[in-house]
Amino acid sequence: MRILITGASGLLGLNLALEAAAQNEVYGTAKDHLISTDAFTVLPSNLLAPGAVERLLDQSQPDWVIHCAALANVDACEADPVLARQLNTELPAQLAAHVARGGARLVHISTDAVFDGQRGGYNELDEPNPLGVYAQTKLEGERAVAMANPEAIIARVNLFGWSLSGRRSLAEFFFTNLRAGRSVMGFTDVYFCPLLANDLAHLLILMLEKNLSGVYHVVSRECLSKYDFGLRVAQRFGLDASLITPASVEKGGLKAVRSPNLTLHTDKLAHALGIQTPDVNSGLERFHAQFQQGYAERIRRMATS
Predict the structure, then answer these.
(1) By C-alpha distance, which of 291, 295, 204 is closest to 13?
(2) Could you report the per-residue pLDDT of 65-118, keeping only the tens digit for each?
(3) Is the separation of the CB atoms in 113 and 138 below 8 Å?
(4) How many Cβ atoms are within 10 Å of 55's Cβ, its own excluded?
């Protein structure tokens, strides 16, 4: 298959492109953080420029499009809601319409944060209630994609993995600081279901192969607090877990409000694929193996100035 991945320098986009390139012809867009790799074709592109989406689709002629590009920094969305809406709502709508007309299949990457996190245990039929600009614009993006391209897959995700900068995922945060002997906080009152980016990549490809459509929760089948996640990172890498201080998110100094309980059910996806999504420990096992095999360093070497 010929696959176009937007946001290929991001945490999900880069790992997805590397995984997909093993058996497919992959094109990946990058704007601010260009990458140098022989694994797939990098297409420098400002997706907000007039005509950029049309040119990109003409250039790559994809069978599948996986739209990862977004303004995913929650505080940055609060600071610039106009840009957040352009990237998280208007761009997905435009892309979905063009992909539908061209006949390719589309996966749109959304977020677990569309829920307010007041109770947890959400399934795909539960009504979202976004709390901030990021979550609101992502939910509006979901709805715009569904309207423009009803056959699209909308995947609500939460992930970790190795990134271009080494600072994009919570697992990297814990690993880097604990390895340096620095104390960090771990929130005991924020729950999530993190999935390794590489495992998420395989699930997205499988969803396309199965010709799925509609909204799916594509997260780990296991959920835990961010504090407990930090403890597991420390344990797997043999680092000092006592450096992680249990704390409330209220003491985190975060600008934008966060949803406290983003535990999501994955039953719909498991039924559609015939398999369960991985648990957290299996993801951390692979995350650790990647580090030992030099995968993290390989990714960082892809960064260009």
Answers:
(1) 204
(2) 999 999 999 999 999 999 999 999 999 999 999 999 999 999 999 999 999 999
(3) yes
(4) 13
Count: domains in the chain: 1
The pTM assigned to this predicted structure is 0.95
Whole-number Å distance between alpha carbons of 56 and 170? 32
Distance between CA atoms of residues 195 and 264, nearest Å: 12
Q: What is the pLDDT of residues 247-285, one digit of tens each?
A: 998 876 676 778 899 999 999 999 999 999 999 999 999
Angstrom distances, CA of residue 297 to CA of 39, 178, 192, 291, 293: 15, 18, 27, 8, 9
> How many CB atoms are closer than 10 A to CB 84?
24
∠ at Cα 289 (205, 14), nearest 5°? 40
Report how far apart, in Å, the C-alpha atoms of 110 and of each of 2, 137, 176 are: 22, 10, 27
| 289 belongs to a structural domain | no
Tokens of 168: 């994009």
> Which helix (H) or strand (E) covers residue 12, if one does?
helix 11-20
Residue whose C-alpha is closest to residue 226's, from 196, 195, 185? 185
Q: Is residue 305 part of a domain?
A: no
- The C-alpha atoms of residue 247 and residue 186 are separated, in whole angstroms, by 6
Q: State which residues form the domain around 198.
A: 2-168+193-223+264-284
Instruction: Output the six-digit token pair for 45.
Output: 């592109």
CATH number at residue 160: 3.40.50.720
